[in-house]
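User: For a benchmark we're assembling, each entry needs the component sequences followed by a predicted structure for the full assembly. Here are entry 17's components. Please fill in the structure.
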Amino acid sequence: MNIENLPQMTRFEVDEQPHIIVNKEICRACDHHACVKACPANCYTYDEATQLLSVVYETCLECGTCHIICDKGSLEWNYPRGGYGVCYRLT
Amino acid sequence: MAKYFDVIIVGAGPAGSLAALKLARGGANVCLLERGKYPGAKNMFGGLLHNTPVLNEILPDFHERAPLERHVYRKSISFMTPRAAVALDFENETFDKPPFNGYTVFRPAFDMWLAEEAVKAGALLSCECTAEDLIKKDGRIAGVTVKGREGEIRGNIVIAADGVLSFLAKKAGLRQDFKAENMGVGIKLLLGFPEETINERFHLVRDQGADISFLGAMGDMRGGGFLYTNRESISIGLVTHLDSLKASGKAPYEVLNDFLEHPSVKKLVKGGTPLEYSAHLIPEGGYKAIPNLFTGGLMLAGDAAGLCYTNGLNLEGINLAMTSGALAGETAIDALKAGDYSAKILSSYKKKLDESFVMKDMKTFKNAAAMMHLERLFRTYPRILANIMERVYKTDGVPRSKLLRLARKEALKEAGLKGLISDGFKIGRSLL
Ligand SMILES: Cc1cc2nc3c(=O)[nH]c(=O)nc-3n(C[C@H](O)[C@H](O)[C@H](O)COP(=O)(O)OP(=O)(O)OC[C@H]3O[C@@H](n4cnc5c(N)ncnc54)[C@H](O)[C@@H]3O)c2cc1C
Ligand code: SF4
Ligand code: SF4
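Assistant: Structure for entry 17:
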């Protein structure tokens, strides 16, 4: 399975409002960036050159892994607005 | 939409819908809020709807009407090392006759069906509604605020059936922050196949299904794999503790891909068409991590109440969710009759749970949560078993040992006497 194909497998109703907001300063100082590897949907990227963490909230599966694994309080994590976000069909 | 209800239920998962059914049938004015586009849109699980007395009682004909995939006939557990697997297979004639022991289901289909049953009974279902906060009045919970369009919804009682992350339980002060070691994450890939291929590969006929658990083969992670057969697809995935996932430094889908390449898994999933990929958390803290279950005007049910357990052999949640939902509904009916929504009257919910199999099973396996943290359970023991089997079957001119002697030697080599005693004690306390 190629995680890059996620949008072809799973349906998302994308909201223009992000439901995850990262605090770039806290993430810059983070010593593990565990969210990057742990996210089952590969939503996080840490750019070593710019030392910036970015999140692609559009393909978030709303599992909550990052919300619990981040121990630095960097994430403002909410559910997307009603009806938006991941929309499982089968599973 | 009316803004005042007898009972507001947050979350149209199995817990919420059973609570709504119970209440609506009892004549209460109930509202069921769901943040998804439809019930089930946000929900995934491994795949097994266990036989649940309360479901049989409330919807005796659900076998004929609910969207079910296959009834589980074959159960297997496979102990894996990177190159080998030792499997234990269990087939039982009684699993092949009604009332079946369990069915594989798709959550978006099943949850939607269950919520519609509550609607038929008179509950008001409101989708695309995310409850954001609790309204407090006179020292008790008296409603919820809804993100965006709906504003406030008030009621005498709120049942938070909002799943594993239950923000409402946190807002009510009923639970602490989560610990990574008390939480598991499951990921799952749904692979499509023609029905005949599944029947042939898993030796099934008609709508018989298979349920296979895999222990080991998750690299350095504490976790296991699962496989369930649906009518025309296979659900395959893995579950791991979040602290272990973090420590491993691996991405869950990479571990899943390695798992799919394991020789004994590869042949089962060969040629499947990827249909959907999903991820969800599981409360794995067990009995000790159960939050406070009620306060004035509020009860927690299902995953929100931490009612889910795994002991390596069973993973049960949906049955505990439906049962706790129904008991919360029953308690609310009594409270409405008495016109009293205080913590005192709602405390009978806890009593009802304690008397049911829900809390009894949570207690029985209260040590299993700790057992599931034994690293050796996932790496060393599968390897010991595989090594023993290899020595049993391998013919290479090396003189053979008797089975027991072989087992002792392998176990001592891999885990050491101290390790064996300590693990034996923990596993024994958890399962025996
Ligand atoms: C990978 C995996 C495999 C599993 N396998 C099995 C299995 O094979 N058998 C088994 O019995 N159990 C299994 N479980 C556990 C089982 O899925 C859960 O215990 C069960 O779904 C709990 O039901 P629930 O109704 O409490 O919560 P959920 O099913 O999570 O339902 C909660 C509902 O509330 C909604 N919601 C949440 N917050 C809000 C809000 N603020 N406002 C409005 N709506 C909200 C959600 O959208 C959701 O519909 C598994 C779990 C996982 C993750
Ligand atoms: S979100 Fe948390 S874990 Fe991820 S980089 Fe930022 S601080 Fe670290
Ligand atoms: S909630 Fe889950 S899928 Fe979404 S960003 Fe966090 S870890 Fe990734």
